[in-house]
Automatic annotation (TrEMBL):
Protein's recorded name: Xylanolytic transcriptional activator regulatory domain-containing protein
Domain Xylanolytic transcriptional activator regulatory: 2-114
InterPro entries per record: XnlR_reg_dom
UniProt keyword terms in alphabetical order: Nucleus, Signal
GO function term, MF aspect, one: DNA binding
CDD domains per the UniProt record, alphabetical: fungal_TF_MHR (cd12148)
One matching Pfam family: Fungal_trans
Length: 372
């Protein structure tokens, strides 16, 4: 039932039914904690001596943990429930090992993973483990989202940078030794870059370059969460993170392989790139990244309904921003040249998980019995 609710939550999100997805995720997490899925003993006790069943149960908890973190970030919550309980579950193995149904190695613990840089013990950790660590860092970003303490922000920023620098050589690139995209590692990189934007964008001056900045990605017009002297640093870090998201979008892989949550990552990247494009008067590099993001959203829309709706709104504002940035050279920012009425809809879409505008927009048949 936990697995079913988890999959349904992902599907509801991909259909654009944000509130229903959140409710279903909450139900999955509550049930998982109730039955003790977060305890190390659960997989052993219920695995019936089958190592693949045990691995499946471990993966269920950690997948739930990562997805719970995704939705918490999209809903701009300061925490997610699966991160408020002790996670004793051993870490999953590599996807290729699990899917081959061959010998499963002894799973490492979270404690072993955390101490990997300080011991001589040579343990190979899976991409799943690094994805879990990315979600744990995202939890720390959410916890400091509203703080004005730059020291606390810097500590979390160090953790974000450390995730990338401490990857083993085989995990630096999302394309593995078999010349295939490691989708689990891909998601880890995506989480880190999105978390970087969540941390730095509200503290930067980028949002003031957009036509309307109300109700968008944890920020409001004129509301700065850092001293003016540090805004440029935050802007640079948010812009670099959006560039890395664009680089992930450039990886050639069938879009069906990507999580539907990548749509939200692309939207974050688009917001920052559009802001940077406004500042730099339509710089070609920003325009090219925006074009890439729009193209991938178009491709993803054939699989995930949510992408199609976001695509229309991103294209609309991109057209206006790019047109204005090439015709107005009097300064880096602009405001009243756009119609607030025309821009409210796309800003609401970009902030999609806080609105109910998606409700009823999909016009799809119910995907589970009794739905309405």
């Amino acid at each position: 039932m936990v697995q079913a609710r988890l999959l349904l939550a992902i599907t509801l999100h991909a259909r654009g039914e944000a509130m229903e997805a959140a409710d279903m995720m909450h139900a999955a997490v509550d049930l998982a904690i109730e039955i003790g899925l977060n305890l190390r003993s659960f997989a052993v006790y219920h695995g019936q001596g089958n190592p693949w069943v045990e691995e499946s149960l471990r993966r269920t908890w950690w997948e739930l943990y990562v997805m719970d973190g995704y939705l918490a970030a999209l809903h701009k919550r300061p925490f997610f429930k699966s991160n408020t309980v002790q996670s004793e579950v051993l870490l999953p193995c590599e996807e290729v090992v699990y899917s081959s149904a061959g010998y499963l190695p002894q799973p490492p613990s979270l404690e072993q993973f955390d101490m990997r840089l300080f011991t001589d013990e040579a343990i190979q950790f899976s991409s799943f483990a690094y994805r879990i660590e990315a979600a744990r860092i995202l939890a720390r970003v959410l916890a400091v989202a509203g703080t004005q303490n730059e020291d606390q922000v810097q500590v979390v920023d160090n953790a974000l940078a450390g995730w990338i620098h401490n990857l083993p050589r085989t995990k630096v690139d999302v394309v593995n030794v078999y010349n295939m995209v490691d989708e689990i590692l891909f998601q880890g990189h995506m989480i880190i870059q999105c978390a970087t934007i969540y941390l730095h964008l509200p503290r930067s001056d980028l949002l003031n370059t957009l036509p309307v900045t109300a109700n968008i990605v944890c920020a409001e017009r004129g509301r700065h969460m850092s001293p003016a002297s540090t805004q440029h640093s935050h802007s640079v870090k948010a812009t670099n993170a959006s560039k890395e998201l664009a680089n992930l979008a450039a990886v050639r892989v069938p879009v069906q392989k990507h999580t539907p949550f990548f749509v939200c990552g692309l939207v974050l990247g688009a917001i920052v790139q559009l802001s940077a494009c406004s500042v730099n008067a339509g710089s070609e590099q920003h325009r090219d990244r925006i074009t890439l993001i729009i193209g991938l959203l178009k491709s993803l829309s054939s699989t995930w309904a949510i992408s199609g709706h976001v695509l229309l709104e991103v294209k609309k504002v991109a057209s206006e921003v790019l047109h204005t940035s090439t015709t107005q050279q009097g300064g880096p920012t602009y405001d009243s040249g756009m119609s607030v009425q025309n821009n409210n809809s796309w800003l609401s879409m970009l902030n999609m998980v806080e609105t109910q505008e998606f409700h009823g927009l999909m016009h799809l048949e119910p995907i589970y019995p009794g739905s309405s």
